[in-house]
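User: Protein folding is very new to me. Would you mind checking the protein record under this note? It all follows right here:
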Amino acid sequence: MNRTVDILLVRHPETEANVNGRFVGRGDSPYTKEGRLQFARLRRRIAAFGPDIVWSSPLSRALKPARRAARTLGVALVVDERLVELDFGLAEGMTSEEIAAAGIVFNYRDRCHPVAPQGESRGDIERRAVSFASELVARGGRHAVVTHGGVFRAALAHLLGLRSDDVWAFHVHNAQLAHVKVVDERGMLEEYRQA
């Protein structure tokens, strides 16, 4: 018998930090006008997917649409700390120019060292995302997961059986959706679009 799980990965709506090029990981930022429109579309798209459970990062930019979709569907909302965005450490809230001016060493592509002092590495976020995605695959069913760009990329690469560096093959826009169907632990990308 084939064991199947359907996972809808969802990146949060556009925020002021996204538009202004600020690296916001554990902090938060309000939605832009476009982000508020994406919020409404995401609720409808998640509801149309029909998940058994809606999972979310604890950060409000992801939690708000997840909560609204779960309420609309009448399904459980589960907040999981593994879905939080990368910790940018000393670079939190800064632009690339501000990081350079402050003399902060910043390397987003290194898997072994923190992206910035006192932050996480890409390897850290991958381990969190892989742990979470693997648990969903083991559970089976239909799951909507509202998270952030870093977790989205890492989970998608893992679910599709890609290499770690293949995370850069995907442009993950705000309000991006990726429906992955996993059959007998082999992932297939069913849909990839913005809400």
